[in-house]
Amino acid sequence: MLLSLLAICCFYIACKKVLYPDDGSHSLWVVGTPLQGYGSLFHTIDDGFLWERQGIPSLMPEISLTGICASSPTDVWMVGSSLDEYGFILFSSDGGYSLTRVCDKTLFGNITFLVVHAKQTNRVWVGGSNSNLVCTSNHGITWSKILLDTLPPVNFNGITTKGDDSIWVIGNHVSPSDSLPPILLASFDGGTTWQSQPVDTLIGHRLVSIISVNDTTLWLATESALLCSTDRGFSWVTKHQVDVGTITGIAAQNIKNVWAVSSQGAIVSSTNAGANWIERRPFNNRIPLTGIITKGSNLIWVIGGDTLPGSQGVIYYSRNDGQTWFNQEFPGSPPLHAITCLEVKE
């Protein structure tokens, strides 16, 4: 009898590995609104089947974490703001278990940091309010402020890179304008020089997210449209107009496969470079979604949560390219803002 059960278990594991070869092999972190008096940071090493809370209350009192990026299984970067709206940057060298505050208002004044990107070799980029774009190449010991001609003031809310030379940064004017286009800046020499890229057709629109998939191809999200460039951002083609709420995040593995989430709980995706789109709504929910990340050919995580007091957050997971979804549980379930993912072997 025991041998029969063992054989069944081995058969199940073997079949699971064939059907879901990447299952359980990813490490993820998510961040969100404060829970029980301090910032929310959660981590999993098994695709999200078990989440644990991380963080140090004394470093994150009433702090809302808005961005996170892991550059290795140990090095994790986070940004956010406190109740009195000053920004800070946190770094962990042990996968999120201990944290160091590497930048706060004593360095750059009373600003809010919105996004962090740590995918270049020994270089981390952080974007924030009032045209603040900062960079470190020594794990936050010193920071350089990138001086950019972006008057009037801009809030930088998206950064993507390809290799160590190509960097794209998006932003929106602090004072909304129906006569000015949003900002898209690019550097192709590692951040030494910068140039504006043409987004004049997007006057009156707000940029949400940008992601590079190879040396020439990028996807860009406004609040209502998804656009693609195949020439490093010098020209853009609108691929989809969204009418299911405001777009809040995008993810793409290549030019063909792209995903986006909306403020009304919808998930849209294309497998043919935007020629056709499919809309999904896990569990028929309309909970606002705030972020999405994909790995491999079929793994997807989606996060969200309402901003209303007392609202809870969600983590949806699919391991078959969005055909079916799991609602993952995590401690306290506060609304979530950002997600990052690494393969365990990384």
- Provide the residue-averaged pLDDT: 87
Q: Ends: how far apart?
A: 40 Å
Shape: globular
Question: Any idea what the radius of gyration is?
Answer: 20 Å
Helix content: under 10%
**Order of strands side by side in the largest beta sheet?**
3-2-1-28
Reported for the largest beta sheet, the result is: 4 strands, antiparallel
Concise synopsis of the structure shown:
The protein has 346 residues and is mainly β. The protein contains two helices and 28 strands.
Folded structure, characterized:
The protein is mainly β. The protein is 6% helix and 45% strand. The chain is built from two helices and 28 strands. It has helices at residues 2-19, 105-108; strands spanning 26-35, 38-44, 52-54, 64-70, 76-81, 87-92, 100-103, 113-120, 123-128, 133-136, 144-145, 154-162, 166-173, 183-187, 195-196, 207-212, 218-222, 225-229, 237-241, 247-252, 258-262, 267-270, 278-280, 289-295, 299-305, 313-318, 326-328, 336-343. The strands form seven sheets. Strands 3-2-1-28 form a four-stranded antiparallel sheet, with no helix packed on it. The termini are far apart. Mean pLDDT is 87; it is low at 1-21.
Keywords, separated by commas or semicolons:
346 residues; 45% strand; mainly beta; 4-stranded antiparallel sheet; disordered N terminus; globular
